[in-house]
Design brief:
Elements lengths: L4 H20 L11 H9 L11 E5 L3 H10 L4 E5 L7 H15 L9
Parallel strand pairs: 1-2
Helix pairs in contact: 3-4
């Protein structure tokens, strides 16, 4: 879910002390806030644009065949790849996905240089 810098600035202005403290915590606690605060803030203040679910896909990292198929088809505007409880060999799976992207996009974008 994308975030707006202006939302972070607005909330930091209102709750800066709390957010500063959370940023200093070495470990998360049940009382901490996270980026979902910004998302829900945007929803409650009507500062969001709903998207059709078909705009992209979410796939666990362990589903390498599905990831490869989606990347090669290049029909989605976005692909969210997350590690989860199905991820067994994180390094190998990440390297597999990296090789697929390097094959399709051999040159780095100007934003990565």
């Amino acid at each position: 879910m994308p975030h707006l810098k202006s939302t972070f600035a607005e909330i930091w202005n209102k709750e800066g002390e709390l957010l500063d403290q959370v940023c200093k915590n070495k470990f998360r606690s049940a009382k901490d806030v996270n980026h979902w605060l910004m998302s829900y803030w945007n929803i409650e203040t009507n500062s969001f644009m709903p998207q059709d679910l078909s705009v992209g896909e979410y796939v666990p990292l362990a589903y390498s065949d599905k990831i490869e198929s989606i990347i090669h088809k290049q029909k989605n505007k976005f692909l969210c790849i997350n590690d989860d409880e199905h991820t067994e060999n994180f390094i190998n799976e990440v390297n597999f996905v990296r090789k697929i992207f390097e094959k399709i996009f051999p040159e780095k974008s100007k934003f990565e240089k």
